[in-house]
Amino acid sequence: MSGSGVLAARDHEVNVRLLLFSDLHLDTHFRWAGPALARARRLALRETLQRITALARAEQSDALLCAGDLYEHERFSPDTAHFLRDAFESVDMPVFLAPGNHDWYGPQSLYHQVEWTPNVHLFTEDRFVAHELADGLTLWGAAHRAPANTDGFVEHFRVDRGGVNLALFHGSETAAIGFQESGKLPHAPFTASEIEAAGIDHAFVGHFHTARDAERHTYPGNPDPLTFGESAGRGVVLFTVHDDGTVERERHDVSVSEVHDVTVRLEGVTHSGQVREQVIAAVAGLTGVARVTITGEVAPEVDLRPADLAALAPHLDALVPRLGPVHVAYDFDALAGEPTVRGQFVRNVREDTVLDEETRRRVLVTGLRALDGRASELAVR
């Protein structure tokens, strides 16, 4: 392997090993975490990249590929720039970078400011540009040059040469958007059929954080958890590319962090201590960070506040509690018979013919909790 990034020919056949990752998002804000935890999570992302480079060396990859969103453009620091330069210099193999919508290429981008070592090749055009990896093997790469509104790279593209043609870019397969995490926008959209029509044997793609193995394209998924609710199977993918254009995929977990999503369903709870006991039991065997969602039914007397639960698991890096749908078990018939302000309030609301049933219940619960001095953070159901 040469420093220019051209791979050594292997007996005139294409049979190379490529390690792909994407969507690391260095310097992510982690708004759901406090300052100390957010900093620890950002350091974990750096450690994840070190695991990726170590794996590339251990597997004797011929090249390391990043399909975008390596870092956050709005938050990167000079320290991050130096870290990335050293990390990619250390792999002693060609590194190919295709900027995405979060790490888009421009005059102020980290990519433009770093004096990269000769083994790093950065795609900078918002169209496919060819890079010969080996005899008969071409890697086409493209870059986002703005944070939004990047047109598709594939639709009007056709390869202009024989051999095996691969593509590296950050984009959205339009048919899969509905299966991805919420909030994903169609940056640089493409369809699976366009990959084949363009003459691309396989595309290495970033943007979707949920891993996906399609016939002619692969999303590795984000290699370390960025938020809660992320399913397993994400990481990096080691490819063996054969001389007929087919690929073999081998997924590797390189994550540093553990992030869990736990639901605690309450039933017949009469005081907040019972809630605490159930939360402690639910996270007892976990490590890392856990988000606990409280749902179910509680008695009217229960004063339930998420902040009271955050310190219940000192063995975790953090416990992030939140309230889901929690029903307050009022006996409206009994309350309506009371000769009290509460009773009169319930009678008045129940006699209102304008309110639908759901709204009537919300008004009753909200008002009763206010009258009881318990206007807490409970979701009114």
UniProtKB/TrEMBL annotation:
Residues 17-210 form the Calcineurin-like phosphoesterase domain. GO terms for molecular function: exonuclease activity. Keywords: Exonuclease, Hydrolase, Nuclease. The keyword Hydrolase applies. This is DNA repair exonuclease SbcCD nuclease subunit. SUPFAM superfamilies: Metallo-dependent phosphatases. InterPro entries: Calcineurin-like_PHP, DNA_Repair-Maintenance_Comp, Metallo-depent_PP-like. It holds the Pfam family Metallophos. It comes from Saccharothrix saharensis.
